[in-house]
Amino acid sequence: MTNTYTVSAFGGVLRDADSAYIPNDLRNADWQAYQLWLAAGNTPNPYVAPPAPPITCALWQLQSVMTAAQWSSVQSFISSMNEPTVSAFFDHGTNQIPSDSKTLLQIGEGIGLTQQQIVDLVTQAAAISIP
After folding, report:
1. How far apart (Å, rounded) are the C-alpha atoms in residues 24 and 11?
2. How buried is residue 7: exposed, middle or buried, by Cβ count under 10 Å (0-12/13-18/19+)?
3. Which residues have C-beta within 8 Å of that of residue 119, sequence separation ≥ 6?
4. Average pLDDT for residues 107-125, to the nearest whole number?
5. Higher-pLDDT residue of 130, 40
6. Residue 63 and residue 71: Cα distance in Å, rounded?
């Protein structure tokens, strides 16, 4: 099997077969093998940055950016879910919830919000701080 490599975010490369990090060091045997691989006309795969983590906010922050009617709808929907763990989670305003939470998306859909509207609310909420 011929090795392939991917450019690393830290300089050096990753050997794709085993994800081993190979530093840019001429004394390193793996780096020397990589240099021979390049000299043979091969090209490494480009570095692809991982996706950004989802935006997260505390429930009190989320409540502060929602209208009273929206928050009331959230509470009603949670009650209708009949899920004690979800109810307990939402009872504590300091709990953190990410914008991509499946439960939050389900609640948002249940009260008529799109996924983008939920992300927008969480983004807005994350900017709220206690003065």
Report:
1. 7
2. middle
3. 55, 99, 100
4. 94
5. 40
6. 6
Query: pLDDT-based confidence at 131, cuts 50/70/90?
Result: confident
- Average pLDDT of 97-115? 93
Burial of 62 (0-12, 13-18, 19+ CB in 10 A): buried
Q: How many CA atoms lie within 13 A of 48 on its CB side?
A: 5
Residue type, 32: Q
SS3 state at 13 = strand
Tell me what the mean pLDDT of segment 1-26 comes to: 92
pTM of the model: 0.65
Residues 6+ apart with CB under 8 A from 25: 12, 31
How do residues 74-98 score in pLDDT, each as one tens digit?
999 999 999 999 989 988 878 999 9
DSSP 16: T
Q: What is the DSSP string of 32-66?
A: HHHHHHHHTT--PBPP-PPPPPPPEEEHHHHHHHS
